[in-house]
Design a protein that fits this description.
about 525 residues; 23 helices; alpha/beta; five-stranded parallel beta sheet; five-stranded mixed beta sheet
């Protein structure tokens, strides 16, 4: 950007000589106007605010020093001044310094001297502009964050909007950009986005907000979107394409609802956050625009309990082909039933924690799983659904292999499977003899081993599981007592009531009433 310089001298030939002698562009300036007297010069300065004024001392109507004095005292503008004069009187220099004149150059003008002075002035301006811009950006980003995240009264919201330093255009959208599969410095993301939107225009400012974990948000307005024909969707596609090219990885973009006024950008921000939840159910190659998704909504649900049980059984039995099938079905269900992003995370983490718990129950060390750390932190760094699926499968196969080794190393593998069987079949008529036959074990040995492993008799454990499930149903349903008894494996409601009271110290009815 070239700074504006205003030439003031009553000698027309001096002015033209300066214009032709100096490499203005090379010094960072362009001559914006000229004047032959101080009075006209003062009027121009007050009206057009040049960055630098080069003036002679002796001029008609208003001399150079009076011009500087009036400009300083009016305080409407604050240009730098360079005095060029044939008078070497020291008093002039003293008075010039008093008014903050940058330099005092004697005629005849030396090209190298004045160009060096101009470069110093330009450097000073550049540093001041950058410092002011940095201050304004800090104020703007603070106001931007407050506007998005704090409930403000309308007058405070208007005050925040004023601090954003954005043009008063109509139409604003908040966009969240997510870089998948690799860690990237968000400073680089900002640079790519700014160049895509503004080219090399150094004075243009984009409001960003860090979302952490390879995610960054930005505010765009209608004037920035218009050059990209096709509106906000095409604009987002271009930004996505540029980021993909420069970062060599998959990029997901979420677009909030367009709002007319900057005071309402919080609405766009909140809808962009909601659009994040559509990540695993929408086509990853296109921007996800809130309100324009193929699925009208996402579901905050979990996988069916039987799916978890089946997967855990296959992991414990090290059935690799079945584990692969389970994972494929699991991820297909995420998409078919439009699982929200948070619901996908919950479902995956539930399996991971269950695997760790199973390992610990077998005296195994989960730290031996090389894939565990990545699975514990998988959501901290955004990834595509395909990448997550592969990571999850690798973890399960490694865990299945470790569990299989632990089962072979200790004789309690069967007893853990028996406990698992009771946990999932407590509604059935379970007896020690029946279970022992099912697992090809001697009933007496099985009973002893169960007591040794879990510190209670097999029959006591069945009762504990059934009572715990009954308590859950009494809390969460309005089933009658006999219905609860039947659903947890008691054929005789009276016996159920007796055992419940013996275990909890109160009858089922009393338990429900105290809730």
């Amino acid at each position: 950007m070239a700074f504006k310089v205003f030439l003031v001298d009553d000698d027309r030939y001096v002015r033209k000589g300066l214009m032709n002698l100096i490499d203005w562009e090379g010094c960072g300036f362009e001559v914006c106007a000229e004047a032959d007297n101080g009075e006209d010069a003062l009027e121009y300065i007050q009206k057009f605010h040049p960055d630098l004024v080069i003036t002679d001392i002796k001029m008609p109507v208003l001399d150079g020093l009076e011009l500087i004095k009036h400009t300083v005292e009016l305080k409407k503008t604050n240009p730098n001044f360079i005095i060029i004069s044939g008078y070497s009187d020291f008093n002039y220099a003293q008075r010039a310094v008093k008014y903050g004149v940058h330099d005092f150059i004697l005629k005849p003008v030396d090209k190298e001297e004045i160009e060096e002075t101009l470069r110093k002035v330009a450097d000073k301006y550049t540093k001041e502009l950058q410092l002011n811009r940095n201050r304004e950006n800090i104020v703007a980003e603070t106001a931007f964050n407050d506007l998005l995240t704090i409930e403000l009264e309308e007058d405070l919201r208007l005050d925040c909007v004023k601090k954003l330093n954005i043009d008063q255009t109509i139409g604003f959208a908040y966009i969240i950009i997510e870089i998948n599969n690799v860690a990237v410095n968000t400073i680089k993301i900002r640079e790519i986005i700014s160049r895509t939107i503004h080219g090399e225009a150094v004075n243009s400012t984009t409001l960003f907000r860090e979302h952490g974990s390879n995610r960054i948000g930005l505010l765009v307005n209608n004037e920035e979107i218009q050059p990209f024909s096709g509106g906000i969707f095409h604009f987002s596609e271009i930004v996505k394409a540029q980021l993909t090219i420069h970062l060599q990885t998959d990029v997901t973009i979420y677009v909030g609802r367009i709002v007319d006024d900057a005071i309402d950008i919080k609405e766009s921000y909140e809808t962009a956050i909601k659009a994040l939840q559509f990540k695993y159910v929408e086509a990853s190659e296109k921007p996800i625009v809130y309100g324009k998704t193929k699925n009208r909504s996402v579901n905050y649900i979990e996988l069916d309990q039987t799916q978890y049980q089946s997967l855990m059984e296959h992991i414990e039995e090290n059935l690799i082909s079945e584990i692969r099938k389970d994972v494929v079905m699991m991820f297909e269900q995420f998409q078919e039933e439009a699982f929200a992003k948070d619901a996908v995370r919950t479902s995956i983490n539930r399996v991971v924690h269950e695997v760790v718990k199973t390992l610990q129950s077998m005296d195994g060390d989960e730290k031996n799983l090389t894939t565990l750390q990545s699975m514990l932190n998988w959501d901290n760094q955004p990834s595509t659904l395909v990448e997550i699926k592969n990571m999850f499968l690798d973890f399960l196969l490694e865990a299945a292999g470790l569990l299989n080794r632990l089962n072979k190393e200790c004789g309690s593998g069967n007893i853990r499977r028996i406990k698992k069987y009771v946990d999932t079949h407590y509604k059935n008529d379970l007896t020690l003899k029946h279970i022992a036959n099912t697992f090809y074990m001697n009933p007496v040995y099985m009973g002893q081993l169960f007591k040794k492993t879990y510190g209670m008799y097999f029959k006591e454990y069945i009762l504990q599981v059934r009572i715990n499930e009954a308590k859950k149903q009494l809390r969460q349903t309005d089933l009658r007592i006999y219905q609860v008894a039947e659903s947890v494996g008691f054929s005789n409601p009276d016996y159920f009531v007796t055992q419940f009271e013996k275990t909890t110290g109160m009858t089922p009815t009393q338990y429900r009433k105290k809730l």
